[in-house]
Design goal:
By secondary structure, the chain is an alpha/beta fold. The protein is built from four helices and eight strands; from the N terminus they run ββαββαβαββαβ. It has a single domain, classed as Rossmann fold. Strand 5, helix 3 and strand 6 form a beta-alpha-beta unit. Bound molecules: flavin mononucleotide. The site of flavin mononucleotide has 21 residues, from helix 1. Flavin mononucleotide binds next to helix 1.
């Protein structure tokens, strides 16, 4: 049975805009379906605020050699390395963007997915790691996401 959700918080971490685009498309689809949404760049987000989030969709790319986008380093440090983050009321789903040509494929998305669980969050949908040609993978992921959640 699908989880009933009032508000979806869509966070994105991007270097060149792909993750932002997919985050916005996720939020647009969610609104069409009747969810309230907010879409925020992690560069403007304090990871401690996850304590009051009902349902998080995180969309983020990997750069360098398995690193976060530059604008996401503070979020990375707080969430992945920090221990004072409370995700005990959080439901979450992660979409990682990357490229199979890199050894550390979608590493940042993997780290965020693990960290959210470590801090007590409940994964409601399996993480998807997308390669360079992500359009079909994204569409399939999005369709599946809205099978496991529905507007409250
Ligand atoms: C210089 C450079 C380094 C990258 N490093 C990685 C990497 O380590 N792992 C990975 O999976 N993808 C890597 N990528 C691929 C990006 O994550 C991919 O292009 C992604 O779609 C970018 O999304 P964004 O526009 O949201 O930042 C790299 C791309 C570039 C240009």
């Amino acid at each position: 049975m699908a989880e009933k959700i009032s508000k979806l918080t869509v966070l994105f971490a991007t270097e060149t805009g792909n993750s932002e685009d997919l985050a916005q498309r996720t939020a647009e689809k969610a609104e069409e379906l009747g969810f309230q949404t907010e879409t925020i760049n992690v560069s403007d987000y304090d990871a401690k605020d996850l304590a009051s989030v009902e349902c998080l969709v995180f969309v983020g790319s990997t750069w360098g050699e398995g690193e976060p986008p530059e604008s996401a380093w503070d979020f990375h440090d707080a969430l992945v390395d920090g221990d004072a983050i409370d995700c005990s009321k959080l439901k979450f789903a992660v979409l990682g963007l990357g490229d199979h040509d890199y050894e550390q494929f979608c590493e940042f998305g993997k780290k965020v997915d693990q960290a959210l669980e470590k801090h007590g969050g409940k994964r409601i949908y399996a993480r998807k790691d997308c390669g360079a040609d992500y359009e079909d993978e994204f569409e399939a992921w999005l369709e599946g996401l809205f099978k496991v959640i529905e507007p409250a």
